[in-house]
Design a protein that fits this description.
Elements (H helix, E strand, L loop, with lengths): L6 H8 L4 H5 L7 H9 L2 E7 L5 E7 L6 E4 L2 E6 L7 H8 L2 E7 L6 E11 L2 H4 L11 E13 L2 H6 L16 H9 L8 H15 L1
Antiparallel strand pairs: 1-2, 1-5, 3-4, 4-7, 5-6, 6-7
Length: 206
């Protein structure tokens, strides 16, 4: 096996990046980036701890649940979960984060890299008063770069094609998979019961 262990070796294989791929990186949000965020009901955020150990977390709510404060700042609500708070603990040690925004039916994505802070300021929490439940904290991201990513990966995956969706029964329920993984002694419900549980949790806690 040949390990690629230097920038020079990597560029020998791939060559220089396309000019447009470099020039499209913006230091702040323009109107197209803002519109994309306003339409996005789903995003993922990557973070790493002080040792560089990485994590990525999915986030979702209604379209525009991540709010644009200004050209350089976005606000992401952090809602009740299982209290692992992996992203938040990482941000405290290492504020650098990356984000990827998805809009259903759109094959392009929006990428943002920046620096995050965790806030409980009432004025920031109040910006989410239009949602049924207030967030516990707000993750404030100061943008270093933002750019649109081409459609090829989602086109290859056919992510939005209903004909590629699997029957949920192809996989065991979440409870069954976790029970097998941890050799736990707890009751495992049906997929319908699992979905009802999470729907009730969202309604009650946000």
């Amino acid at each position: 096996m040949t390990k690629i262990d230097s920038q020079e070796k990597l560029r020998d294989i791939y060559g220089a990046p396309m000019e447009i791929a470099v020039s499209k990186c913006l230091p702040a949000l323009d109107q197209h980036c803002k519109h994309f965020i306003e339409l996005a009901p789903f995003a993922v955020i990557s973070s790493a701890d002080a040792n560089g150990d990485a994590d990525v977390s999915p986030r979702g709510d209604g379209p525009g649940f991540i709010k644009v404060l200004d050209d350089r700042t976005i606000l992401m609500p952090d809602r009740p979960g299982n209290n692992r708070v992996d992203t938040l603990t990482n941000i405290i040690d290492n504020p650098k984060v990356g984000m990827l925004f998805f809009v259903p039916g759109v094959n392009e994505t929006l990428r943002i890299n920046g620096r995050a802070e965790i806030h409980t300021d009432p004025e920031l929490l109040d910006l989410f008063a239009d949602t049924p439940k207030p967030p516990i904290t707000v993750v404030k991201v100061t943008i270093d770069e933002a750019f649109l990513h081409c459609a090829k990966s989602l086109m290859r995956s056919k992510l939005w094609d209903v004909n590629t969706q699997i029957d949920r029964k192809t996989l065991p329920t979440l409870g069954k998979m976790i029970k097998d993984q941890v050799a736990g002694d707890f009751e495992v419900g049906t997929q319908e019961q699992t979905d009802q549980y999470f729907a009730a949790s969202i309604a009650e806690r946000g």
